[in-house]
Amino acid sequence: MGNILCRTSIALALILLTACDGAPPPAQVLEGKTMGTVWRVNVAGIDAARAAALRQKIQQQLDADDQELSTWKADSALSRFNQYRGSEPQRVSENMADIITLSLRIGRKTDGAMDITLGQLVNLWGFGPVKAPPTTPDPQAIAAAKADTGLQYLRVIQRDDGQYLQKTLPALSVDLSTVGEGFATDHLARLMEQEGLTNYLVSVGGAVLTRGSNSGGRPWRVAIQKPTDRENAVQARIDLQGHGISTSGSYRNYYELDGQRISHVIDPRTGRPITHKLVSATVIATTALEADGWDTGLMVLGLEQAKAVALREKLAVYLISKRGDRFESWMSPQFAAFLIEN
Does domain 77-177 correspond to CATH entry 3.30.470.20? Predict the structure, then answer.
């Protein structure tokens, strides 16, 4: 028989491809829940006993990450910062400072399209911990929430005694859900390295990172899922070559309102969910965190602006847009280097 590719769903819009014809015993597969989504670790070269111990360490680490970054936990480090109504710099962890520094950088490079200060708008549209009724917010409410956003009102300060975060707009609310999955994925990779493991694939939600090879000695490969509600429909196959990948899509996290899909991706320029024809943006980068930051910004920008940014910044990007009843794809030259020909 030929080399048959097995498909195993690992995350939103990404599918793990493994050779299953005459292959050696599969890698240990560990999984659980975190940050309102699922995590998954495929690791080669360990037995069941070590896998059980590793799973416990993974969950403990992700629980700690969630306690720091969650907007759903009132006592998380991020929630405490959001609840603070002053302008004095607040001490934060190095992790938090790094995430926000990268987010601010990508925000500037996308002309504010990637904006982590949209907490008020996220809640207003019903995608945050404060649930809104299933009605379209009135223009005054949108304008009021929009007035409490802006990357220019948030800064990271480096002092001799550590990292600080300052907001100069008292009601500013930071939401790191756009980058939390990427950060957690990178953090899982660091844990694997600390455990002496060099052949693994880790994922949290829509972010994935690989190192080494699978249990068959082959490269880890993933596929971009077609932007439909049908699972395991492959759009493109990718050899990650030890990189991180993240996909943002408007076709999974939404609700129906008056016959329309209301996307969780909110445009900070309008204060409203996106309505353009770009339905999926996939980015490959050296870290899952960076890929996770860029994919949201590109989704907000829409097809043509996303193309321009991808080319200007030399990003590895794969975009899927909807034209009538069919989907069209576009990739940057940098992305083509990771593509596996069918």
Answer: no
